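Worked problem 6 (solution included).
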Amino acid sequence: MRHYFSTRVRIVLVVAVLLAVGLAVISNLTGLNLPDMVVQGVLTPLRTGVSKLTDQAEQLYSYMFRYEALAAENAALKEKLAQMEDDARLADSVSRENDRLRDLLDLKDAHEDYELVDAYIIAWGSTDWTSTLTINRGRNAGIEEGMCAITANGEVVGLVTQVGSNYAVVKTVLDSSLGISATMASSGYNGMVQGNYSTGGRRGLLRMNYLPSSAVIRNNDQVFTSGSTVYPRDLILGYVVDAGFDDTGVAKFALLEPAADIDTLEQVFILTAYNAG
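Solution. The predicted structure is:
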């Protein structure tokens, strides 16, 4: 009888008694009976898992909603930025137009005999030896071949060489086939200016030929038209940047930076009539 309960059985009994006491205490404290505690023990992990899934779903929904809101806001900002850029470009264009109109008024005040037709450049054309512009005005606006094109500042752009009803082609001063009689402002030397000259890797220069070998040529000296039936006197052609002797060694030449920046022009004015006398 003394050895009826083995050590293992005794341990089991002790554990059972402790569990029973523990459950009784928990039951008294929580008011739950044994089945309730079993159910609670099973459901609690499930509830925790479901709660976590719900939280994650809410976070995902919130993120998706916020993403859509941000995407819509981003699109609205891009549209607003594009509009602001358009407004800025328009403001710049209007400002440049106003500057040209002020310069043109000064030009007309200085040359009351000038009759001018304004035109916008719609195309450019150039090769190694040629340089042309196409403008949006033509015969319907009174433009004819042989008329010169200038800027609002009185800078020579070129010569009209082809005319349609609503367009015209201008051969620019950079074209090598165009020759213009010119005078150097400080010295009064006369010569012929031609375009499309390059030296030392520098392109787009004008060359004034047939200057006296004794000519004193100064950098930044202004060169203007001598006056003819095509080009009125005192239109600005360019500014001296270099000089040298021609191949014969008898005459000098001067290299000029064109006064009109052909590559950035937006608008030109065609001189349809003036007092050649």
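Discussion: The helical segments are 7-30, 34-110.
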